[in-house]
Design brief:
Elements lengths: L1 E10 L2 E7 L4 E5 L6 H13 L18 E10 L2 E10 L2 E6 L2 E2 L3 H4 L5 E4 L5 H4 L2 H15 L1 H23 L9 H39 L6 E6 L10 H22 L10 E6 L2 E2 H4 L2 H23 L4 E5 L7 H11 L5 E5 L8 H4 L2 E6 L2 E4 L6
Parallel strand pairs: 3-13, 3-14, 8-12, 12-13
Antiparallel strand pairs: 1-2, 1-4, 4-5, 5-6, 6-7, 9-10, 10-11, 14-15
Helix pairs in contact: 4-5, 5-6, 6-7, 6-9
């Protein structure tokens, strides 16, 4: 799949912008704070209906404007597909092929993207929340059911926490609604955990050989999904629900003392091992970056397998963060097969045929102009 056209209205620092892209490589060049990343973010928002930079949609709308709009024309195997996302104080409105979507979960997945930005280098050494977000965003765009389950889980978790908080410090309590929420919580939590197990098995399948290639065959990467120790992917749904129910029963007193839910997918994490060593703790910066790169390249293969088409790759100011070898490995992998967007302040330091064949866009003060092809 690839984006043929992107149009922005009142988005960040763009009053109006209309661009057509190459189905191969597109490079946006400009100094910092000129609007390069805003274009990249707009593509991400068009895909995921949310930003990777902020949870406040109001920040996406141009200053003093009531609404912002992102329009895209996407080419997929089944044909052209117009997408539209309108952002306002009232919320989001999404259209696919000019038809409004009742739920965002029905919209997400029409355009698949893989984003690789400098903050993704923190995927390995960052907080568990960063890794859970990685899981949720990537599974969500290949599984609308997962997104629906995730929203349900968040609502039930909020309700369950509210009852625990209102009964905080009590040795025990009887609440019919708590029992109802607890039952709902167990069912939807296990659906999420099962989907994460499946995703992690696929990610491991693709990430291990990619990592081995980048490390010149010297390192073996293992990715481990950290959830309740008693749970594993070979269990039935009923077995998993029974285990979670028992663990919640054992933790009830502690949850009442704290006034919040202590067990469930909102506490999960990912762990990374290279040649048996935990690289979150013991790995060098180079190993951590190689792992992050391996995961992103594995995402491309995973999406390709699950949806039948390669996703769009967004490289936001990340090439300058990689050494020449990792940079070349990344560009060799995507060459000719994956539509790629690159932001950078300068392409002089990127010596690769892929970049020389790219469409170049120069960005300055919210204005984007198509430059001459880099191989002219």
């Amino acid at each position: 799949m690839h984006i043929e056209r992107l149009a922005l209205t009142n988005y960040r620092n763009y009053a109006s912008l209309d661009l057509s892209f190459s189905p191969k490589i597109n490079v946006l060049i400009g100094e910092n704070a000129q609007g390069k990343t805003n274009v990249m973010e707009a593509i991400y928002v068009l895909s995921m209906a949310k930003s990777h930079r902020t949870s406040n949609d109001r920040e996406l709308i141009r200053w003093d404007q009531e609404y912002g709009k992102i329009e895209g024309y996407v080419q997929r195997k089944r044909g052209g597909l117009p997408l539209e996302l309108i952002l306002s104080k009232k919320g989001k409105r999404a259209r696919v092929n000019h038809l409004e979507q009742n739920r965002l979960s029905l919209y997400i997945g029409q355009l698949n993207v893989v984003m690789f930005a400098p903050e993704d280098l923190n995927l390995v050494k960052g907080s568990p929340q960063v890794r859970r977000r990685f899981l949720d965003m990537e599974i969500g765009q290949i599984s609308p059911v997962y997104l629906h389950d995730l929203l349900t889980f968040q609502k039930v978790l909020k309700q369950r926490n509210a009852i625990l908080k209102s009964n905080r410090g009590k040795p025990d309590f009887k609440d019919v609604m708590f029992d109802v929420y607890n039952e709902q919580y167990i069912k939807v939590a296990i659906q999420i955990i099962r989907k994460r197990f499946y995703f992690m098995e696929l990610l491991q399948k693709w990430a291990e050989p990619i990592h081995k290639g980048i490390s010149r065959g010297m390192e073996t990467l293992k990715v481990s999904y950290g959830t309740l120790k008693q749970l594993n992917s070979g269990q039935t749904t009923e077995e998993m629900e029974s285990i979670l129910e028992q663990r919640l029963l054992e933790a009830k007193r502690q949850e009442l003392d704290r006034g919040l839910t202590l067990i469930g997918p909102h506490r999960d994490d990912l762990f990374f091992f290279v040649n048996g060593y935990d690289i979150q703790t013991y790995g060098s910066q180079g190993q951590q970056r190689t792992t992050a790169l391996s995961l992103k390249l594995a995402e491309i293969e995973l999406v390709k397998q699950e949806v039948g088409e390669a996703p769009v790759l967004l490289l936001d100011d990340v090439l300058s963060e990689l050494d020449d070898y990792r940079q070349s490995h990344l560009l060799n992998t995507i060459q000719g097969e994956v539509q790629t967007f690159v932001t950078t302040t300068n392409i002089a330091g990127i010596d690769h045929d892929t970049i020389r064949q790219a469409d170049i866009f120069e960005v300055e003060a919210g204005e984007v102009t198509k430059g001459s092809d880099s191989d002219d």
